[in-house]
């Protein structure tokens, strides 16, 4: 669906040229959710703007369905984008007026935009807010309208910049559900977020960009497995004896209290040695810490 080939972009700052996006390659398949992550200034927004045709790359190209969008501009119509959340919308207009307006910009007939706009707003649970001005809606509802506006012309690729930023728990859960639902209809989604838990929950694949370069890319679950440390939290029924405690401390254990500690190993099998050592103190619980994108991210951006 989307292929970004060797895209490079230079900007000028203080009379010096610097590379904001450096030889970037990425691709997204139909229905796939790709989380594009990176610290502030890494080059995410610039990349998204290049994909959306808002910024011109100095090198490389963007292909949609195999066609270069620089020479086949009509393929940009396959893209819907929510780049600034609710700031994309006209606040004094109602959701349906916004949708008709954005549909019109994409060449839709007014009646078609009306009909599909109402369907979209209903699908997003906004059927009772169709005639309320956007400024009177909650932040979460405004975000839903912004996504509807990006979907009005039935794009095949949706670009979402920080889709859950500033939303409360319930609104962000709802937006996440909707993102998954949109992807299930075959729309590819490229999302950027600093909320790594959101990326972990939604993304089929993840790319981490730093200094304009992709430093890690892969299937989310595979990356998580790769970065899962063999870190266990062990809780026993009785106080750990002084001698065992000393041994565990030497092995790098961190005690939460006299009967619970955290310990990491190079090899998973080392936990059996610890279980044997603790005997006959009954083991109440052993939990392996799950890897998280936050750990992966920290490692990738601090090396
Ligand atoms: N129009 C511009 N002119 C000059 N420099 C720019 C321009 N747009 C972006 N930059 C610079 O390019 C670099 C990449 O910026 P970009 O906005 O793509 O980063 P980002 O990863 O989206 O960051 P954030 O997470 O803060 O949104 C930054 O150093 C930024 O200051």
UniProtKB/TrEMBL annotation:
Pfam family of the protein (one): ABC_tran
Task: Give the Gene Ontology MF terms in alphabetical order.
Answer: ATP binding; ATP hydrolysis activity
Q: PROSITE patterns, per this entry?
A: ABC_TRANSPORTER_2 (PS50893)
For this UniProt entry, which residues form the secretion signal? Answer: none
Does the record's keyword annotation contain ATP-binding? yes
Query: What domain of life?
Result: Bacteria
Q: Name the keywords, alphabetized.
A: ATP-binding, Nucleotide-binding, Transport
Q: Which residues form the ABC transporter domain?
A: 2-236
Q: What is this protein called?
A: ABC-2 type transport system ATP-binding protein
């Amino acid at each position: 669906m989307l292929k970004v080939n060797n895209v490079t972009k230079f900007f000028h700052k203080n009379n010096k040229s610097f590379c904001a996006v450096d030889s970037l390659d990425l691709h997204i398949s139909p229905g796939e959710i790709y989380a594009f992550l990176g610290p502030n200034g890494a080059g995410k927004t610039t990349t998204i703007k290049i994909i959306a045709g808002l910024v011109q790359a100095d090198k490389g190209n963007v292909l949609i369905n195999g066609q270069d969008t620089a020479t086949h501009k009509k393929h940009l119509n396959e893209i819907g984008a929510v780049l600034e959340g609710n700031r994309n919308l006209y606040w004094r207009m109602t959701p349906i007026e916004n949708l008709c307006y954005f549909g019109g910009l994409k060449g839709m007939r007014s009646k078609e935009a009306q009909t599909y706009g109402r369907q979209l707003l209903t699908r997003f649970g906004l059927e009772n807010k169709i005639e309320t001005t956007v400024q009177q809606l909650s932040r979460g509802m405004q975000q839903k309208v912004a996504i509807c506006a990006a979907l009005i012309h039935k794009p095949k690729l949706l670009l979402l910049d920080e889709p859950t930023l500033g939303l409360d728990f319930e609104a962000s859960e709802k937006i996440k559900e909707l993102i998954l639902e949109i992807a299930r209809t075959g729309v590819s989604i490229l999302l950027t977020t600093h909320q790594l838990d959101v990326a972990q929950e939604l993304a089929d694949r993840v790319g981490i960009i730093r200094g304009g370069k992709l430093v890690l890319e892969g299937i989310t679950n595979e990356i998580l497995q790769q970065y899962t440390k063999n870190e266990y939290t062990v809780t026993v029924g009785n106080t750990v004896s002084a001698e065992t405690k000393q041994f565990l401390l030497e092995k790098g254990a961190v005690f939460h209290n006299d009967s619970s500690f955290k310990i990491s190993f190079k090899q998973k099998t080392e936990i059996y040695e610890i279980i044997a050592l603790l005997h006959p103190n009954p083991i109440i619980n052993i939990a392996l810490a799950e890897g998280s994108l936050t750990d992966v991210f920290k490692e990738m951006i601090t090396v």
